[in-house]
Amino acid sequence: MAQPPVPLKDMKLMDVKLGQLPTWLAMRDYTPGGIVGAVRRGYDRYYNKYINVRKGGLGGISMLLASYVVISYIWSYSHIKHDRHRRYH
Amino acid sequence: MNLSFFDQFTSPCLLGIPLILISMLFPALLLPSPNNRWITNRLSTLQLWLFHLITKQLMIPLNKNGHKWALLLTSLMTLLLTINLLGLLPYTFTPTTQLSMNMALAFPLWLATLLTGLRNQPSIALGHLLPEGTPTPLIPALIMIETTSLLIRPLALGVRLTANLTAGHLLIQLISTATTALLPIMPTISLLTALILFLLTILEVAVAMIQAYVFVLLLSLYLQENI
């Protein structure tokens, strides 16, 4: 199927060929506004898939909370790693 | 390296960004903005119900002028509620354990209520410093006492929230340390301690919600006197 001639920087990640990947990465928008837009798009995708449904369950929110716990762990790893082999905490 | 139970209250940094920033921004992900559909998803419906409940409770004792504070008080309540409850998850950081943050919330809001009262109805606001029906010899002492109690309000608001949450987190850490330390030695006692830990966690969930409510309620009370 012939793809329409979309400019490289607007192509989605799954359509980018492997050889074009560094160029594609370099052409992305890394300004603060661009990063906020990317985060918002990602969150909107998650929200519309798992939470903004007619009979959403506990899973949508639980995945958010679980990811929050994991991110907090990663953030504080260098602080917590001293407690690994301690005898008395 | 110094080891203390207060290490959990320092906000760890990764790549120069402290965890407190993530903790303050995360509640925004949990509270979706309502769209203009008639029947929204379950989360939005729950959220709307909760906000209506909170706003109604807070706005009933206030007069028409006080209703301008509805957005501020409801959003403050939501912020404190989510931050406190999220802090009970493992490895998370609770921003309201920091006195700096609570004073930054309490002091300007209390000052706003005080200045509103002094600006719009100065004699009534100052009249609150002397309760009705006091015997005449007691008046000077009572005015000083009431002024002190007025000026200590922001301090009390901030410290109350900080102390409650800090104490709760510390207790959880201490008792869980005791449980794990006792497990190889006396398993029965460890089970008892685990039961205490379970009850304490339930208490902490309640405290998290109650403290948020008390903070906002007291603010609305100070507002009632002054608006």
UniProtKB/TrEMBL annotation, chain A:
InterPro entries: F1F0-ATPsyn_F_prd. The keyword Transmembrane helix applies. GO terms for cellular component: mitochondrial inner membrane; proton-transporting ATP synthase complex. Its main location: mitochondrion. It is found in: Mitochondrion inner membrane. It comes from the Eukaryota. The chain crosses the membrane at residues 57-77. GO terms for biological process: proton motive force-driven mitochondrial ATP synthesis. Keywords: Acetylation, ATP synthesis, CF(0), Hydrogen ion transport, Ion transport, Membrane, Mitochondrion, Mitochondrion inner membrane, Phosphoprotein, Transmembrane, Transmembrane helix, Transport. One of its GO terms (molecular function) is proton-transporting ATP synthase activity, rotational mechanism. It is a single-pass membrane protein. The keyword Membrane applies. Belongs to the ATPase F chain family. PANTHER family: ATP SYNTHASE F CHAIN, MITOCHONDRIAL-RELATED (PTHR13080), ATP SYNTHASE SUBUNIT F, MITOCHONDRIAL (PTHR13080:SF16). Subunit f, of the mitochondrial membrane ATP synthase complex (F(1)F(0) ATP synthase or Complex V) that produces ATP from ADP in the presence of a proton gradient across the membrane which is generated by electron transport complexes of the respiratory chain. ATP synthase complex consist of a soluble F(1) head domain - the catalytic core - and a membrane F(1) domain - the membrane proton channel. These two domains are linked by a central stalk rotating inside the F(1) region and a stationary peripheral stalk. Component of the ATP synthase complex composed at least of ATP5F1A/subunit alpha, ATP5F1B/subunit beta, ATP5MC1/subunit c (homooctomer), MT-ATP6/subunit a, MT-ATP8/subunit 8, ATP5ME/subunit e, ATP5MF/subunit f, ATP5MG/subunit g, ATP5MK/subunit k, ATP5MJ/subunit j, ATP5F1C/subunit gamma, ATP5F1D/subunit delta, ATP5F1E/subunit epsilon, ATP5PF/subunit F6, ATP5PB/subunit b, ATP5PD/subunit d, ATP5PO/subunit OSCP. This is ATP synthase F(0) complex subunit f, mitochondrial. It comes from Patagioenas fasciata monilis. The gene is ATP5J2.
From TrEMBL, chain B:
It is found in: Mitochondrion inner membrane. The keyword Transmembrane helix applies. The keyword Transmembrane helix applies. It comes from Columba rupestris. The chain crosses the membrane at residues 12-31, 69-89, 101-118, 170-189, 195-223. Belongs to the ATPase A chain family. Keywords: ATP synthesis, CF(0), Hydrogen ion transport, Ion transport, Membrane, Mitochondrion, Mitochondrion inner membrane, Transmembrane, Transmembrane helix, Transport. It catalyses: H(+)(in) = H(+)(out). It is a multi-pass membrane protein. It comes from the Eukaryota. InterPro entries: ATP_synth_F0_asu (IPR000568), ATP_synth_F0_asu_AS (IPR023011), ATP_synth_F0_asu_bact/mt (IPR045083), F0_ATP_A_sf (IPR035908). PANTHER family: ATP SYNTHASE SUBUNIT A. One of its GO terms (cellular component) is mitochondrial inner membrane. Component of the ATP synthase complex composed at least of ATP5F1A/subunit alpha, ATP5F1B/subunit beta, ATP5MC1/subunit c (homooctomer), MT-ATP6/subunit a, MT-ATP8/subunit 8, ATP5ME/subunit e, ATP5MF/subunit f, ATP5MG/subunit g, ATP5MK/subunit k, ATP5MJ/subunit j, ATP5F1C/subunit gamma, ATP5F1D/subunit delta, ATP5F1E/subunit epsilon, ATP5PF/subunit F6, ATP5PB/subunit b, ATP5PD/subunit d, ATP5PO/subunit OSCP. This is ATP synthase subunit a. GO terms for molecular function: proton-transporting ATP synthase activity, rotational mechanism.
